[in-house]
Specification:
Layout lengths: L1 E3 L1 E3 L2 E8 L5 E5 L7 E3 H6 L7 E6 L2 E15 L2 E11 L2 H7 L5 E3 L1 H4 L2 E6 L4 E6 L10 E4 L7 E5 L5 E6 L6 E2 L2 H11 L6 E5 L5 E14 L2 E11 L17 H4 L7 E4 L1 H4 L2 E6 L4 E6 L1 H22 L3 H17 L3 H21 L4 H20 L2 H17 L3 H14 L4 H13 L3 H14 L4 H13 L3 H14 L4 H16 L7
Parallel strand pairs: 4-9, 5-8, 14-19, 15-18
Antiparallel strand pairs: 1-11, 2-3, 3-4, 3-7, 5-9, 6-7, 7-8, 10-11, 10-20, 12-21, 13-14, 16-17, 17-18, 20-21
Helix pairs in contact: 7-8, 7-9, 8-9, 9-10, 9-11, 10-11, 11-12, 11-13, 12-13, 13-14, 14-15, 15-16, 16-17
Amino acid sequence: MTVDFEYSQKEILVKGRLNNGEELLFLFDTGASDTLVDRRVAAEHFLAKQGKQNMMALSGAVNVDSTVIKRLELGSLIVNDLDARIVPLDSQSRQLGRRIAGIIGTNLIRKFVVKLDYGKPSITFYDTDSFERPKTGIIVPFLQPNAPVVKARLAGGVELAMLVDTGAAFNNLPTAVARKQMAQLGSQSSHTTEGSGLDGRRLKLASLVIPRVDVGGQSMKNVNFTYVLESKEAGGSARTDSKLVEEQGGFFRSTSIGILGNPYWQNFVTIVDYKFQRLILSPNPMVAVKEQIEAAVQDGDSRLLVHGNFRLAETAYQKALLLATTHKDRVNEAKLYGRIANMRRMMAKELARPEQCKTAYDFFVKGHNLAVETGDREVEGRILADWSLLYSDNGQMIEAKQNFNRALLLAPRDPQVNVDYALHLSRLNQFPEMQSYLEKALFYDPSNWQALWYQFKLFEKFMDYPRAIKTLKEIKKYYPWSKPAASRLAQLEAMVKASPAPKTR
C-alpha cells in the first residue's frame, strides 16, 4: 500500500484518522520507538489512559500516559489495536506552524517493510513475509537489534553509529565528535539556534559542515550537522558531570550515536526492513532532475545576490524554469516565478527602474498562487518574504510586516526568509533583532552571502572590529575570490594593528 506524504520543512507529514474521526496530520518518524498522540487530540478522540510510563526522547526522559488506538488509518493502510503514548506536541506544532496530531513510531513501522521515496513523495508499506528485495540497491545492516542504527564514515575516516531518523529535520553529531571534526577540518565558525525535545527543555544547538559522509558506500558531500553546546559554551555555568549519556539527556546528549535525518535520506530511495535488520539504499532518479533544477536556481541566486549580474541571473532562472516546466514540477515552477519576481524587485530598486515594480508584483502573484495550489508551504513562505521586501522598498512597512509574519510562520527554517526579515528590521533600526535573524539564517546556511555580508556591516557599524574581521574571514573562506571582502579585511586588520593597546587598570 502506498501513502502520499507532504515533505515540509524537512519533515515527513502524512494524513490519517483516529477511530474513524476527522483527517489529522502525523509526523512519520523512524527515530521514535513509540507512536505518540497529542494530549489534546487524545482527549478529543476519547483515548483512554492506561497507566504511566517513562519514555526516552531526544533531549531526555519523559513521563507519559499509555493508551491503545483501536483504529488508525493512513491512506488505505489500516492498523488496529496499536499501543501509543499520550504527550503534549505543542512545541512541534509551533515549529511547523501547523497542528500535529501525533507521531508514527517504529512500533507501527516495524510491522512492515517500508520504502521512502522523497522524489514522489510517498511511503510504500510491504508485507514482511512476501517482500522481495529489489535487484538494485546497496544493503546497509543495522548495528543494533531492532533499531535502525547504521555505520557512517565521516571526514578523516572517523566511523560513527547513526540513527536513521525520519523525524529529524537536522543531522546531529555528539558534541565530542563535532569538536574533533572541527579541529581536524580547521577553523569553521559555528552558528547557533535553539531546539527542544518532548520534555520541553531548551537545547542550544550549533552547526558545522562535514565535507563528506559515507553510508554503505553511498557518499554525500558538504553535509550540515548540528551539535549541542554545553552550558559553559552556551553562556551558562560549566557542567560538573562530563559524562553525557542517553539516560541523562537523550540522543542529543549521546556520546556514542549521531543522527542522520531527512536532509541526508532525501537523496535516496530508502527501504527500512526490520525483519532482516537492514536498509536498502538506491539513488533517487527524481532527485537527479531536482538537483539539475536546484543547481540552476543556485547559479541564478549567486549571479543575482553575490555578483549583482541581472542578465546572467535571468538566464539561469529561465533554464531552471524550462526544466521544471518540462518535467511538470509545479513546485519548482512556483519557486522560479518567485525568484524572477525578486530579481525584478532588485532591478527596480538598484537600477532605479520603477517600471519593474509592476512586473515584480505580477510574478509574485503568479508564483504565490501556484505555491498555494501545490500546497508547498516553504515555497510560499519564501515568495512572501521576497514579496515583503517589495513593500518595504516602497515604504509600505505595515504591508511588509503582515507578509513577513505569514512568511516566518510558513518557512521559519528557510535561511533567505530570515535574511529578508533581517534586512527589513535594519530599515527599522532594530539591530539586535536583526542580528538574531542573521544568526538563525547562518545556522541553516553557513555560507549564505547576504547573511554574512549584512552581519559584517552590522559589526562594522557598531565598531565591533574583532567580530567584523572574523566574519570577513568567514566570507573569504566561502568566497575566496571576493575582492571587497579581501580589501576590507586588510584595512580592518591594519587599523586594529595600528591602534594603541588599551591601558591596564
